[in-house]
């Protein structure tokens, strides 16, 4: 368990009902990436939930643990040192403020740019060589997982070529982002029946997000009937989210999943998330291979650059895709 000292004030952070054990997601799809049934299981989970847990993914535990340790070391630095790695926008250290439009959460984080399969050289944060090495090793590995998952998605959808989706995140100029989040324990709310919002509800604008966390729970997803369920943590697994752009590419067949994080009153949560987005000029429209005879796109045409701009001008919880529906 990771517990870091020094909690920022909880004022201005929206509160949520504390999760109770009965809220656990009992029907969570678990996909074994090494199994021949993975493509069908992935497509099925993306259609039903826009979310699944991925096991047997092949990323060594060491690669994940090294990054977690380096992240814990970074977040344990004195506040003034961390602030020198800020501000978060466009990339760097941030605390409590998420985005530029007034959203707040009980967390601190690093928002980082990825070029090809490693941290962007232009991204000077973090400056520590060990932390950068751990990030680069992890990013290269998790990006390979994202590519394998997207290839499996294409196979599960029955479309060719196999890289119809994955090529968008491997293409030159693809817009990949990496986030390391630290949610300190929120002692002030212990026993009050409510929790601080760690990360408010939202869908991810990109194609795919691949998340790994330490053993502290807090992640919740919304089912298609609107019910919120808690995702039990598993430090050995990845959790995969469908993003808005993938929903559009599949003409709504895959659903982007609404999710949020509830801060824990006792334990700190550390999560690291790879967000795979396409190049700015990439057109986001249903793949022709997925449109049946006479089937029309449910969405107006747009590029990833246009969607990203709209996303960054919106509040976290806004239904961003609604503006792009026909
Ligand atoms: C409030 C915001 C934070 C966010 C940008 C946004 O304006 C709306 C989308 C948010 C999100 C969610 C997924 C990951 C992320 C990096 C992204 O691309 O869109 C975050 C942005 C962020 O943390 O700055
Ligand atoms: O930290 C988590 O578990 C999820 C955070 C998240 O949804 C995000 O950073 O976009």
From TrEMBL:
Its cofactor is L-ascorbate; Fe cation. It comes from the Eukaryota. GO terms for biological process: gibberellin catabolic process; response to light stimulus. Keywords: Dioxygenase, Iron, Metal-binding, Oxidoreductase. It catalyses: gibberellin A1 + 2-oxoglutarate + O2 = gibberellin A8 + succinate + CO2. Residues 173-278 form the Fe2OG dioxygenase domain. The keyword Iron applies. It holds the Pfam family DIOX_N. SUPFAM superfamilies: Clavaminate synthase-like (SSF51197). It is an enzyme of class 1 (oxidoreductase). Its EC number is 1.14.11.13. Signal peptide: none annotated. GO terms for molecular function: gibberellin 2-beta-dioxygenase activity; metal ion binding. Belongs to the iron/ascorbate-dependent oxidoreductase family. GA2OX subfamily. This is gibberellin 2beta-dioxygenase.
């Amino acid at each position: 368990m990771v517990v870091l000292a020094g909690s920022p004030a909880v004022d201005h952070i929206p509160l949520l009902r504390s999760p109770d054990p009965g809220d656990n997601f009992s029907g969570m799809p678990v996909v074994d990436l090494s199994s021949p049934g993975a493509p069908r299981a992935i497509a099925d989970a993306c259609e039903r939930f826009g979310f699944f847990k991925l096991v047997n993914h092949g990323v060594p535990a060491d690669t994940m643990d090294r990054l977690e340790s380096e992240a814990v070391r970074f977040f344990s630095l004195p506040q003034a040192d961390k602030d020198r790695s800020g501000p978060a926008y466009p990339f760097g250290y941030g605390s409590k403020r998420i985005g530029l439009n007034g959203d707040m959460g009980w967390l601190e984080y690093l928002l980082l740019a990825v070029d090809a399969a490693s941290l962007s050289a232009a991204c000077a944060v973090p400056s520590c060589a060990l932390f950068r090495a751990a990030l680069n090793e992890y990013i290269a590995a998790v990006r390979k997982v994202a590519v394998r998952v997207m290839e499996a998605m294409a196979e599960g959808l029955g479309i060719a070529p196999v890289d119809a989706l994955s090529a968008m995140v491997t293409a030159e100029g693809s817009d990949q982002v990496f986030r390391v989040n630290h949610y300190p324990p929120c002692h002030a709310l212990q026993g009050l029946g409510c929790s601080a919002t760690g990360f408010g509800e939202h869908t991810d604008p990109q194609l795919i997000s691949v998340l790994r966390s330490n053993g502290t729970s807090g992640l919740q997803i919304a089912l298609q009937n609107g019910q919120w369920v808690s995702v039990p943590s598993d430090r050995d697994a990845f959790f995969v989210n469908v993003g808005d752009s993938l929903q559009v590419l599949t003409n709504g067949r895959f659903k982007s999943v609404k999710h949020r994080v509830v801060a824990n009153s006792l334990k700190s949560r550390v999560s690291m998330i790879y967000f795979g987005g396409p190049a700015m000029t990439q057109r986001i429209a249903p793949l022709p291979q997925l449109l049946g005879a006479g089937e029309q796109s449910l969405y107006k045409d747009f590029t990833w650059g246009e969607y990203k701009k709209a996303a960054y001008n919106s509040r976290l919880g806004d239904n961003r895709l609604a503006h792009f529906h026909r």
